[in-house]
Amino acid sequence: MAERLTTSAARNVFYGGSAFFFVIFLGLTAHSHWYMATSSTDASTLTPAVARGKHVWEKNSCINCHTLLGEGAYFAPELGNVWIRWNGNEDPAAARDMLKAWMASQPSGTPGRRQMPQFNLSEQEVNDLSDFLEWTSRIKTQNWPPHTSG
Ligand code: HEC
């Protein structure tokens, strides 16, 4: 056995190690996609209204202030679980009304609170947003975030 690492042995460790971990990386990537497609996302309830609601979300750049499942800006509350926070699982109609009232009453003007702009959304747009936020709240996130508050 050589007493020290030869150049060719070092090269083999490098290429072998790279190939080995690249294969593991590919496997984990495939597993993530498989898990998202089969376990965490409920494609059967992905209605056109949910897709339209996502469009409203994107068109108005809600993500510039809010996070959705942790992604986005940390200026305003997380909204991936706002549906649960507003008890939409128990009483979806009340949560829908709440969102309608919330969107209509911004900015609140309350001193000392961060303000959210008025977006002047149509009734249809707010309804679609409700569908989108309700659907998002059902994504299985392995109990993340740990608290339902903001
Ligand atoms: C300029 C920043 C900003 C943008 C853009 C923004 N928001 Fe907000 N939003 C806020 C702030 C700040 C609050 C918290 C206000 C408060 O508590 O008085 C808030 C609160 C909310 C809440 C209530 C959350 C809770 O748990 O009480 C909802 C729902 C909401 N926003 C929806 C939206 C939607 C939908 C959009 C896009 C159409 C949007 N926001 C875009 C700043 C923003």
UniProtKB/TrEMBL annotation:
Transmembrane found in the keyword field: yes
Keywords: Heme, Iron, Membrane, Metal-binding, Transmembrane, Transmembrane helix
Domain of life: Bacteria
Pfam families from the UniProt entry: Cytochrom_C
Domain Cytochrome c: 48-137
Transmembrane segment boundaries: 12-36
Gene3D superfamilies: Cytochrome c-like domain
Record InterPro entries: Cyt_c-like_dom, Cyt_c-like_dom_sf
Protein name (record): Cytochrome c
Originating species: Alsobacter ponti
